[in-house]
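Email to the structure team, subject: Cytochrome P450 model.

Hi all, the expression group asked for a predicted structure before they design truncation constructs. Nothing fancy, just the tokens so they can compare against earlier work. One-line instruction: predict Cytochrome P450, return tokens.
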Amino acid sequence: MGQPGQLMSYEQTTHCPYLQAVIYEALRRHPVAPGPLQREVPEGGLQAAGYFVPLGVVVGTPAWVINRLPEIWGDEPDAIRPERWLDKPESVRCSNTSLPLAQEPGVV
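Reply from the structure team: attached below.
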């Protein structure tokens, strides 16, 4: 991988699964998006928490909240556990939920 004291290239870091897991876990615990991650409700609407939300309504939830849901992250969502990224899919129930890795805004 390189010599001690030398910086790794991006390409080299992609071959270090535990390093990648630590980075993902840090971003999950401390998301860079300060406000809600907004999405537009798609055709057909959305049923959420017992309410119907019609097409076109913009909805959002803060990344901090989603990144601590036990339904997604397991029994200890507040624990710092990089291994959850290596154990997929058992630990991380849905890779699309991985907010640190979200590519762009989209549809709910």
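The chain has a mean pLDDT of 82. The longest helix spans residues 17-29. Ping us if the truncation boundaries need rechecking.
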